[in-house]
Amino acid sequence: LLTAVSESGAEYAASMTDKPITIIPNGIDLSSYTKVGQKNRQDTMLYIGRLEKRKGVKYLLQAFQIFQQDNPETKLIIAGDGPERERLELLADDLKIQNVDFLGYIEESLKLELLGSTKVLVSPALYGESFGIVLLEAMASGTVAVAGNNSGYADLMQDTGSLSLVNPQDINEFARRLDTLYNQDDIRELWQSWAKKYVKQFDYPQVVRQYEDYYKEALKNYGHQ
């Protein structure tokens, strides 16, 4: 019995086996996030995750510096810890970014609060992502996301969600995408309308049902051997 959470995950697994692989996505407790979203969002952008090279936070800081030239009141909140934290804090100082706050590790309750109050979640991972649960959490919270165009995120962000995808290493384009999804209300509303419907399929009961159906079918086939 082999499953993967996305097409990219299945491709990786297929390089090590000839057995069939069924795609069943990751899930979240939708109700935990849908109740935290606020209509009046604060003038903030939010990153949540490990501070390591593959997460692309260096490029977020560089793009935010450009974005902030026309949006000086916007604050960047970086929640998470990791081996790159000190280097990223020094980079923020070198770039003379005024409104950036490194929170370190945060509890789940604060994560929910931040997700529900920020205008844009930014997850600029370069590679190594098979899915993107933080993007589901943003969708469920009604929070618009900007995401790296790695294969795992690209598998998840279908249709209207592809508006989120950008090459983080293209700093100028990254900054433009931040500006678009932060400031253009019509595009934000389009994205939020798509996300509200799209995310429902990832609610835990929906995902559990897929696993149950998969195991029932596998047991039935096993009995016929």
Query: Helices and strands, in N-to-C order?
Result: EHEHEHEHEHEHEHEHHH
Given helix and strand content, the structural type is: alpha/beta
Form type: globular
Radius of gyration, taken over Cα atoms and rounded to an integer in Å: 19 Å
Number of helical elements:
10
Helix amount, in percent?
A: 40-55%
Spatial strand arrangement across the major sheet: 5-4-3-6-7-8
Mean pLDDT: 93
* Beta strand count: 8
**pLDDT under 50 segments (min length 5)?**
none
Protein architecture, described:
Helix 3 packs across helix 8. Strand 1, helix 1 and strand 2 form a beta-alpha-beta unit. The chain is built from ten helices and eight strands. It starts with a strand and ends with a helix. A six-stranded parallel beta sheet has the order 5-4-3-6-7-8, with helices on both faces. It is of the alpha/beta class.
